């Protein structure tokens, strides 16, 4: 199996990288806490910035939880596929030894085995397309969040600029009320905070979303390689194979008919021998009966007995 292009612990490597990046991000936040506090918490005249940033972070966390869960699932699938490859290399009778029955490779083997038992042809391309379609549902939510996440920052910027324009309008209407200038400054600050939040979340999330798709590609390509190189030759039923097996069955039946003919001839010979034995036995009984009659007649004559 040295030709197999499969990174067996790719999901675990991505998860380790995610932990390292997360710790680095938390360390940067603590290191520059005063900067982030000034942008996100201080002098907030409205709750718009807090609400928009919270929505961005919640959307980001939801997508990251989905990515982590999918990576854990693919890590389990990689372990199952690695055990299956080891079973192939060791040429074990049961290829699913120590392989989870719910894994992709176990379900693929079970499906191909059922087709083989029914003598149905195996369509590798159809199975591959079905597997890709089924696994694409795992990445639908992260894909949606990856497309929407940057738009939330744009939305926050638009809302913040609207607040700044409202403050500028108040400032133009009244030169006495300082609230207008405060709204302008607050709007610009909120636009900065929402943009920073969206960009950081988008870069972080986009990187690991790409790693998730790489993990999926690594796993599915390995499954299809194993299927093409090992399972299809083992379980595929071609018309030529069916004709060959049928001709072999005909040859076996022909041999069985010959054996039955030989057995019938043996039975005929045994029947003839049995008939000859029965005939000889009957002849001996007749001779014995005649001898008994002669003995009886001699006894009557010797003892002068009359006929009864």
Task: Work out the helix count.
Answer: 8
How many beta-strand elements? 0
What general form does the structure show? rod-shaped
Number of domains: 2
Give the uncertain stretches in residue-range form: none
Structure description:
This protein has 308 residues and is an all-alpha fold. It has 2 domains: 228 residues; 70 residues. Helices cover 83% and strands 0% of the residues. The chain has 8 helices and no strands. The termini are far apart.
Q: Which descriptors apply to this entry?
A:
308 residues, mainly alpha, 2 domains
Topology overview:
Elements: H1 10-31, H2 33-40, H3 48-90, H4 104-117, H5 124-136, H6 140-173, H7 179-235, H8 239-303
Helix pairs in contact: 1-3, 1-7, 3-6, 3-7, 4-7, 5-7, 6-7
Task: Give the gist of this structure.
With 308 residues, the chain is an all-alpha fold. Helices cover 83% and strands 0% of the residues. It has helices spanning 10-31, 33-40, 48-90, 104-117, 124-136, 140-173, 179-235, 239-303.
